């Protein structure tokens, strides 16, 4: 079973995404509501991947990602950014960070697990 950490400041996004990933893919989903709590959760839980919102108060996704890259305990964990920003300049900026992928909001809950599995080269999920 795959373990994924979901970092998003919006309660409903965390709830919908975790329920979907658990129900459609059978993954274990750990959640955090901020960049700082996400870093702590990543260190404590050692997930296989991190799905993280870009726009968060205090520490946004790109800043959180850069902080994670400084910590050898979690720097190897692939990070997928989740964003509503779809402009080309934003996409390039996110790609330049070195994240595994950028997925867009609003996402389709029924295909989210398949999109993540494809990015991470995990076995296709049972829908």
From TrEMBL:
UniProtKB keywords: DNA-binding, Phosphoprotein
Residue(s) carrying 4-aspartylphosphate: 53
Biological process according to GO: phosphorelay signal transduction system
UniProt keyword DNA-binding, yes or no: yes
Domain Response regulatory: 3-120
SMART domains: REC
Database matches in PANTHER family: CHEY SUBFAMILY, STRESS RESPONSE REGULATOR PROTEIN 1
Full protein name: Response regulator with CheY-like receiver domain and winged-helix DNA-binding domain
Organism, scientific name: Terriglobus roseus (strain DSM 18391 / NRRL B-41598 / KBS 63)
């Amino acid at each position: 079973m795959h373990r994924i950490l979901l970092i998003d400041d919006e309660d409903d996004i965390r709830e919908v995404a975790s329920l979907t990933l658990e129900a459609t893919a059978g993954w274990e989903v750990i959640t955090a509501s901020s960049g700082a709590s996400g870093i702590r959760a990543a260190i404590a839980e050692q997930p296989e991947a991190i799905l993280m919102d870009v726009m968060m108060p205090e520490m946004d996704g790109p800043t959180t990602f850069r902080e994670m890259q400084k910590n050898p305990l979690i720097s190897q964990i692939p990070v997928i950014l989740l964003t509503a920003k779809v402009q080309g300049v934003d996409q390039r900026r996110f790609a330049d960070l070195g994240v595994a992928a950028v997925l867009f909001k609003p996402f389709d809950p029924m295909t989210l697990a398949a999109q993540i599995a494809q990015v991470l080269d995990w076995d296709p999920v049972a829908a």
